[in-house]
Automatic annotation (TrEMBL):
Protein name stated in the entry: Tyrosine/DOPA decarboxylase 5
Top-level taxon of origin: Eukaryota
Pfam families xref list: Pyridoxal_deC
Coiled-coil segments on the chain, per record: none
Record bears the keyword Secreted: no
Cofactor: pyridoxal 5'-phosphate
Family: Belongs to the group II decarboxylase family.
Keyword terms, alphabetized: Decarboxylase, Lyase, Pyridoxal phosphate
Length: 405
């Protein structure tokens, strides 16, 4: 309400010094909370820094454009059609949108398949092979998007080996931690960021798990000059002594649009109101509740955990074995998927709880995500009772059926 009511338009430093200075301070605060290397911070003195974008897609687009401009300066603009970007098939679909907007050819987008064997994380060997195949046909590797906490299963890509491979080929590495990055304010989860020191940029969404309202995507870059060089606009009407001195930050040159909201005020209020300890406890409580739900699922032999739980989301389903026992016949994955899809439809239609699904490795999984501020253990137990009740009804019907309908 404050940021909207004040209506500060802080596109340049001189338009609102307070908005700019507070943003740089808040971004350093949060960077230190998640233990980002000093090279990403303004206070680190290495040319890095942070900016509040609107969404992850904007953060991805800005970094792709920065990487693109950097590369085209070396190889010539006529070679833009040779640029290739990489990600896993679990990377958020907004990345593909950002790639499309950036001018990279759609056929030069590589969504590398993941498997259950790697817990649906991007395999370094698969990345290496894909890069080498592209180089053989004269293409130029440009950009890799690694994910900490994928949308479907919250899988974590192994940053260290991926960054080592990317370094060999001069590839820009962006780390998308939109959901799970907030968990890294807790020391026990910071190991998921091992290797981020070798990446080029990193982002998380404070509007997902840190109380901040939409939009509040935090983006840090190690070389802010590469970002501003690609996005700077300097018309005469915006020139002023502060900008010309190069001693201040003009955030218009760190983003897609020119105008911008006073986003830092939202995040500053959250950090000042709750403090680090309370925010850590908030996130830990959600992860403990997810563990509680995971135990409930594991205790019911009719269900199975479909993917490893890393944070506060549990992927589960009614198991194939359960359906085979009811039908006394073999069931294929298609039938199992159909049953679980129908189960989720019934659960959501009751109006007591709402869950979403994902298709991972050809398997339909139900996603139980905990993230709302007022969620408590009684809500988890209530949700599990709703799930079991609907499963009971469907499995009872199945006993008298000859196939899954």
């Amino acid at each position: 309400m404050l940021s909207a009511g004040l209506n500060v338009v802080g596109f340049s430093w001189i338009a609102s010094p307070a908005a700019t200075e507070l943003e740089s301070i808040v971004m350093d605060w949060l960077g230190k909370m998640i233990n980002l290397p000093k090279t990403y911070l303004f206070s680190g003195g290495h040319g890095g820094g942070g900016v509040l974008q609107g969404t992850t897609c904007e953060a991805m687009l800005c970094t792709i454009v920065a990487a693109r401009e950097q590369m085209l300066e070396k190889i010539g603009r006529e070679n833009i059609d040779k640029l290739v970007v990489y990600a896993s098939d679990q990377t958020h679909f907004s990345f593909q949108k950002a790639v499309k907007i950036s001018g990279i050819k759609p056929e030069n987008f590589r969504a590398i398949p993941t498997t259950k064997a790697t817990e649906f994380a991007l395999c370094p060997e698969s990345l290496s092979v894909t890069i080498q195949e592209d180089i053989k046909v004269g293409l130029i590797p440009l950009f890799l998007c690694a994910t900490i906490g994928t949308t479907s299963t919250t899988a974590v890509d192994p940053l260290k080996p991926l960054c080592e491979i990317a370094k060999q080929y001069g590839i820009w590495v962006h780390v998308d931690a939109a959901y799970a990055g907030s968990a890294c304010i807790c020391p026990e989860f910071q190991h998921f960021l091992d290797g981020v020191e070798n990446a080029n940029s990193f982002s998380l969404n404070a509007h997902k798990w840190l109380f901040s309202t939409l939009d509040s995507c935090c983006l840090w870059v190690k070389d802010s000059n590469s970002l501003t060089k690609a996005l700077t606009t300097t018309p005469e009407c915006l020139r002023n002594k502060a900008t010309d001195s190069k001693l201040v930050i003009d955030y218009k040159d760190w983003q897609i649009s020119l105008s911008r909201r006073f986003r830092a005020l939202k995040l500053w209020l959250v950090l000042r109101t709750y403090g680090v300890s309370n925010l850590q406890n908030f996130i830990r409580s959600h992860i403990k509740m997810a563990k509680h739900f995971e135990r409930l699922v594991a205790l019911d032999e009719r269900f199975e955990i479909a993917a490893p739980r890393n944070f506060s989301m549990v992927c589960f389903r009614v198991s194939p074995l359960t359906l085979e026992r009811k039908l006394k016949a073999f069931v294929d994955e298609g039938q199992v998927n159909k049953f679980n899809a129908k189960l989720l439809e019934f659960i959501n239609s009751c109006g007591d709880i709402h869950m979403t699904h994902a298709m991972v490795g050809g398997i339909y999984v139900i996603r139980f995500a905990i993230g709302a501020p007022l969620t408590d253990y009684r809500h988890i137990d209530m949700a599990w009772n709703v799930i079991r009740t609907h499963a009971n009804v469907m499995l009872k019907r199945l006993r008298y059926a000859t196939s899954i309908v």
